[in-house]
Fold:
Amino acid sequence: MKYLAVASLASLAACAWLAPPSAVAQGKPHQHGVVKVDVAVEGGQLTVALEAPLDSVVGFERAPRTDAERRTATEALARAREAATLFKPDAAAQCTVAGVEVQAPVLEAGAKDPKGGHAEMEAVYRFQCAQPQQLKNLQVGLFDAFKRIQRIEVQVAAAKGQSKTSLKRPASTVPLQR
Structure:
């Protein structure tokens, strides 16, 4: 993700070892219905990076062509910016949203259809936590926000190690500590 701050990128890079070598080396194509989420806990900062095929978010992977598709895209992007709804850290950790960045260039006005017919939405959510030692789980609201999502592949990098998990409906809890 081009727009990540250097510190966040470094935190998320720790998750890279969890991906199969072929996926990293070959730029494995996305699967419709499957969303990738990388979670990094560093000090008092919780960073969540999301990569989703646009088909899983809006139902198409091209520039919107009709008024209905433009409304669908606008509504989906608005939902994607609702960090506190999509990701809920443990209340005891006292986390607040510190920043949200969402990009889906093909949905912007005047955008052209993507080469290869595939497009994605990328987002980064930053939380500042007053009691980071209380971060034990992260509730994920993506299934409720985007009905076309079937599976969420999650990688976590935290002080106590890395882990990987896969969520399918109705599961929504990601453990942050091993």
User: Anything to note?
Assistant: The beta strands are 34-42, 45-53, 87-89, 95-103, 120-129, 137-140, 151-158, 161-168, 173-175. Residues 1-26 have pLDDT under 50 and may be disordered. The CA atoms of residues 40 and 157 lie 5 Å apart. The chain has six helices and nine strands.
